[in-house]
Design goal:
alpha/beta, 4-stranded parallel sheet, single chain, 103 residues, 4 strands, Rossmann fold
């Protein structure tokens, strides 16, 4: 198996964040945050991820606004954002991470 990837999940729906974490746990290192602003703060502090999974409507920001905000902090990280389907399947989550990380 390839090295574990670092995955940041931005999901204000706690149930969704937990489901995603459960799908990826053991395969990748996963951090779930419930506020887009917290994700932005982590990026400002130098946090970097192989994939950033974002729910379709994160609190307070449209997905395009979130991508723009990330690009202003760390352009390379904006390229790693995947906006999830409203009801992502486990296989869809895995495909999203693998496609973004180049595994």
């Amino acid at each position: 198996m390839a090295d574990k990837k670092r995955v940041l999940v931005v999901a204000d729906d706690l149930g969704l964040g937990v489901r995603i974490r459960d799908v990826l746990m053991g395969i990748h290192d996963v951090l779930v945050v419930s506020w887009p602003q917290l994700a932005l703060d982590l990026l400002k502090l130098g946090g970097r991820w192989d994939t950033i999974l974002c729910e379709p409507r994160p609190k307070g920001l449209a997905p395009k606004e979130f991508v723009y905000a990330v690009s202003r902090i760390a352009a390379d990280q904006a390229e790693r954002i995947v906006v999830l389907d409203p009801r992502p399947s486990p296989s869809g989550i895995l495909r999203s991470v693998e496609a973004t990380t180049g595994s």
